[in-house]
Design brief:
single chain, alpha+beta, 2 domains, four-stranded mixed sheet, three-stranded antiparallel sheet, 4 helices, 7 strands, 34% helix, elongated
Length: 149
């Protein structure tokens, strides 16, 4: 997690009063991220050592700052400041802004669609068309057949 893309942002869960409150907001946020089809660390490929399910009170959730997943998490709250990641939203106080930023991130990154409306997303090593994953090797074969054939 080293970069800050145009529409990336950080969500601070430090102000939540209890772990239960943090978990509630995290679950709701992740539900919205899943509904958009975003890739979440610990739920989607590539695998990670500690997935988003471990994030809790005092941690950060990040959107658009990792190379392999759209949604990640960080244990240390000072990480965002150290890396200059902005904006940093409070998960409770800035809930509406977070939802708007999530949709904006999605629209910017995943605006590609097929003629029939299936979402096309491009990742390191594969392309996802709707629910189908096409590896770079398979995609190269298909393109080669279209060009040669």
């Amino acid at each position: 997690m080293t970069k800050n893309n145009k529409n990336s942002f950080v969500i601070d869960m430090s102000k939540t009063i209890t772990n239960a409150t943090a978990d509630f907001y995290k679950r709701e946020f992740l539900k919205n991220a899943r509904n958009l089809g975003l890739f979440i660390a610990g739920e989607d490929i590539p695998p990670v050592l500690s997935g988003i399910e471990e994030a809790g009170m005092g941690n950060l959730l990040t959107v658009g700052t990792a190379d392999n997943h759209d949604v990640e998490w960080i244990r240390r709250p000072q990480f965002a400041c150290e890396r200059g990641l902005k904006p940093v939203y409070d998960i409770v106080d800035d809930w509406n802004e977070i939802q708007e930023a999530l949709v904006k991130f999605y629209e910017e990154k995943y605006g590609l669609r097929t003629k029939d409306g299936a979402k096309i997303t491009i990742h390191d090593g594969y392309v996802k068309v709707g629910y189908h994953i096409i590896t770079d090797d398979t995609l190269a074969e298909v393109i080669a057949r279209k060009i040669v054939g």
